[in-house]
Design a protein that fits this description.
107 residues; 0% strand
Length: 107
């Protein structure tokens, strides 16, 4: 299914094609028709340029959001690794201490 922006583009292109056909079939001079087609082409290109700029801006904004999110996840991961490392070191130290205590009580 087409997204909202795709539907707009299809609608816009249909309008341009319909208007072009109407102009070609209209009883106007060749010079007037060419001028109208040229104006429509320029307007269409301006609209397309604007949509491309909007798309670039949206992509840049989303990219920044993704980078910030990933950086946050990386920091969370580092904190989790540090916490796990502390727990592991404490567990190993407790194991060594218990082993020494058991060794003393056996000897």
């Amino acid at each position: 299914m087409a997204s909202g922006s795709d539907k707009f583009i299809y609608f816009f292109m249909g309008g341009v094609i319909g208007a072009s056909v109407a102009l070609l079939l209209a009883p106007k001079s060749g010079e007037e028709t060419r001028r109208l087609l040229d104006d429509m082409y320029k307007e269409g290109m301006d609209n397309l340029d604007e949509k491309v700029r909007e798309g670039k801006d949206l992509i840049a904004e989303k990219s920044r959001e993704i980078v910030e999110d990933v950086e946050g996840k990386i920091e969370q991961g580092k904190a989790t690794v540090d916490q796990t490392k502390k727990h592991l070191v404490a567990a190993v130290e407790a194991g060594v201490k218990a082993s020494k205590k058991k060794k003393k009580s056996v000897s």
